[in-house]
Amino acid sequence: MTISSSQKKGGLHKGVGLPALDISLAFPQATPASVFPPSVSDYYQFDDLLTPEEQALRRKIREVMEKEIAPVVTEYWEKAEFPFHIIPNLATLKVAGSTIKGYGCPGLSITGSAIATAEIARVDASCSTFILVHSSLAMLTIGLCGSDEQKQKYLPSMAELRMIGCWALTEPDNGSDASSLRTTATKVAGGWLLNGQKRWIGNSTFADVLVIFARNTTTNQINGYIVKKGTPGLSATKIENKIGLRIVQNGDILLKNVFVPDEERLPGVSSFKDTNKVLAASRVMVAWQPIGISMGVYDMCHRYLKERQQFGAPLAAFQLNQEKLVRMLGNVQAMFLVGWRLCKLYESGKMTIGHAGMGKAWISAKARETVALGRELLGGNGILADFLVAKAFCDLEPIFTYEGTYDINCLVTGREITGIASFKPVVAKHSRM
Ligand SMILES: Cc1cc2nc3c(=O)[nH]c(=O)nc-3n(C[C@H](O)[C@H](O)[C@H](O)COP(=O)(O)OP(=O)(O)OC[C@H]3O[C@@H](n4cnc5c(N)ncnc54)[C@H](O)[C@@H]3O)c2cc1C
Q: What is the topology classification, in CATH, of domain 273-418?
């Protein structure tokens, strides 16, 4: 084959192939996730454990997510772009601000908020991460650690998604070891100067409100600040080439002498320990993302196996496939119960950071097994985002890692049950290495 100069210039494939067939023409036997499958994972009828308000919220979210969001997200996931036009649809869910009472926030129970998180993640994990960062991290930090003026100023418009928030703790050099963060806050007349770098910050490329943690150079303690979009010295650039949560715009933030007025310092954050108030609740929410993802994957597989025929029978007729389906369903039941119990412990004021850590770690590990089974069950279509499971499979990976990796959450629980912290390796004094 000879390559023409125009082919060399435009790339070999330009003008050679034809556009991809629409998926329903290319593969008529099974329905893609743009027509979302019915929910069939509540085998043990856990809906009975929810209050009528929580059940109604669940139905409403499910309807909006299936009808308005499912047809849109695959394309944006593929492009790794945020579908700004769906923000009004997400606003109708009225979940931003979740458990915060007053200030235009919905004041949901933690169980209601968890169910909402799962229902959003069931259809699209990126959308649930977008809401989670905005609501359970940025808004909750303002709600728990902000002054009354700060709450009045930010929470009502954030609850309506007219203003979007992000939450910046992680740095390039400090991921799991976040308490060693090095961004500095230096006191100057009338405010503070922030200097440093943040990494992985969800929503940061377009957020109106950035909650930023920095080390107070006078006390050496971690403080929290509200920084507004467009403040001189602040810049955020998108992290490219992610394999999961591709709709979420994660950014690298640079802070160069960013001036923050005194009234934008969060009075409730005077040390790293204060972030635990927020992380305890948000970790429960993060634990419900893998539950929702697994529900969606199970629902998708359940429909697909009945539609797809091989060897003259639907895939659902094969024993090996049934065993996988049952294993997935069993995992969903167990994950739901653990997540539900976490919520009840939180609501009764008995939840410890160790409880939350084990919940997040165990649930995300079980979900990993569940989505991997789903990916197998769909054969070749299991690697296509169009049939949900490949997207869900990839989306679970960052969730396994963020809000404390699996390992770190295990160590948090390990410290609680043994009384021994094992985060820092013990380096032998007379090591010969
Ligand atoms: C998609 C995405 C979104 C994110 N969003 C945000 C956000 O909005 N805001 C924010 O502040 N951060 C965010 N993060 C950052 C996230 O919280 C960190 O990635 C996470 O804490 C892990 O840090 P790291 O990536 O630096 O991994 P590292 O800390 O480098 O860890 C690498 C590996 O070493 C293991 N490890 C580390 N320390 C120990 C130890 N002591 N003992 C045993 N094993 C250990 C880890 O478990 C992991 O397997 C996000 C991350 C991702 C991927």
A: Butyryl-CoA Dehydrogenase, subunit A; domain 3 (1.20.140)
